[in-house]
Amino acid sequence: MSVSVLVVDDSAMARKMLIRALPPDWDITITQAANGSEALAQYRQGGIDVMFLDLTMPEMDGYQVLETLRNEDLNCLVIVVSADIQEAAQARVRAMGACAFIKKPVDAERIRTVLKDYGLLV
Amino acid sequence: MTIEFIGEDQREALQEVANIGMGQAGASIAKVLGEFVELSVPQISAVSAAGIPAALAALAGDGVASAVRQAFLGELRGEAIVIFSEHSAHDLAELLACADVLDGPAERELLLDISNVLVGACLGGMAQLLRTTIGFSPLSLLADQVPTSMLLQADEISARCALLVEVRFRLEKRAFRSHLVMLMADDAVAALRRALDRFIEEL
């Protein structure tokens, strides 16, 4: 069955860069959101399996999305994709429930490895 | 005066490239200072030469600030200006554990050092993404604790108008605030547009 993927980034260019780097053999349906509030609205409609989440965004940032997901006990595999590559930022998002951190500019091989680690890709 | 320097696709690409450069610069100073650095969404605008001093003042806010300038050269050329809020130099001195021995010249030296790290990492990262090389001129102190409206004088700007790219860094637990501004004159923007088009095509 196709995996439902939500790509969250305020930059359309960044969403495009990420989508191009996803494995071509991964059976997915992609939806996109331009900020945290849109992402949560999409999420609440149901059926999102994996969320690729940017951190630095206007309106509602990635940290706030992680916090909301945690507070509302929402289940979703969140992979943070960020240009904020500070070690402390990586540790923070992991503590907040993100399962992996991918640095921008995104690397297709790194994405494949993360997806394999979580059994999303064989 | 409205200046249409770059197209919408180019602006979006530049914003994302600046975002990645900013992230690398933020991680570099986080390591040097041992503090968490808060980043913002990069802002891009086109301004007339006469409007540049006011644009910088608007970024820096009220009060006094210091600024360091460094020219960059190559396919991409322009000037990087790093603006530091009033207490930034003192924060840097404290963080680098030399506050009690620091005088004015030594604090100014710290501003130059941190600017060097920020500009090198940010613009270096951007140049790498755009597959071009960039060189830097020596840094110089442009303004030392002056009212923000006086950071840059209109007669110090040779261009008719400029593209302004701004990223900001804040330390979570301190007063330190810094803005990195890239100014590219109108005649240098053509090369930037070409580099951005290449970048977009390769996506």
TrEMBL record, chain A:
4-aspartylphosphate: residues bearing it: 54
Domain Response regulatory: 4-119
Iron-sulfur is among the record's keywords: no
Pfam families attached to this UniProt entry: Response_reg (PF00072)
SUPFAM superfamilies in UniProt: CheY-like
Record-linked SMART domains: REC
Keywords: Phosphoprotein
GO biological process, one term: phosphorelay signal transduction system
UniProt name for this protein: Chemotaxis protein CheY
Recorded name of the encoding gene: cheY_3
UniProtKB/TrEMBL annotation, chain B:
InterPro entries associated with the record: CheC-like_sf, CheZ_family_phosphatases
GO molecular function terms noted in the UniProt entry: hydrolase activity
Annotated protein name in UniProt: CheY-P phosphatase CheC
Lineage top rank: taxon: Bacteria
Keyword Cytoplasm: no
UniProt entry keywords in alphabetical sequence: Chemotaxis, Hydrolase
Signal peptide start and end residues: none
PANTHER family according to UniProt: PROTEIN PHOSPHATASE CHEZ (PTHR43693:SF1)
Top class in the EC scheme: hydrolase
GO biological process: chemotaxis
E.C. number: 3.-.-.-
The species this protein was found in: Candidatus Accumulibacter appositus
SUPFAM superfamilies: CheC-like
